[in-house]
Amino acid sequence: xxxxxxxxxxxxxxxxxxxxxxxxxxxxxxxxxxxxxxxxxxxxxxxxxxxxxxxxxxxxxxxxxxxxxxxxxxxxxxxxxxxxxxxxxxxxxxxxxxxxxxxxxxxxxxxxxxx
Length: 115
Known about the structure:
By secondary structure, this protein is an alpha/beta fold. It has one domain: Rhodanese-like domain (Oxidized Rhodanese, domain 1, 3-Layer(aba) Sandwich). 32% of the residues lie in helices and 14% in strands. The chain contains 5 helices and 5 strands, in the order E-H-E-H-E-H-E-H-E-H. It has a 5-stranded parallel sheet with strand order 1-5-4-2-3. The chain is globular.
């Protein structure tokens, strides 16, 4: 069964499917402290103003889900990526919708190796 077409705006469940099953990449624009609170496993964190620097870590032939805290900042970055030839979407509602849906996150670095 072929996967659905990746749309420009994805709800949390569809974003998880794209990342987990369709080879999608998560690009997280949140601040370092927000990232430390929890992020999507395998996500690439980049400062919003330094998307250019993140391009080398993204595969252009795989979909990209752009993430911020509430879904507002990510639209411009996703549009920029689409202009550069990427299949890019935003996580509608940002990480708030992801965590609100009870989807898994990576823990804070300090907690990763706690007994």
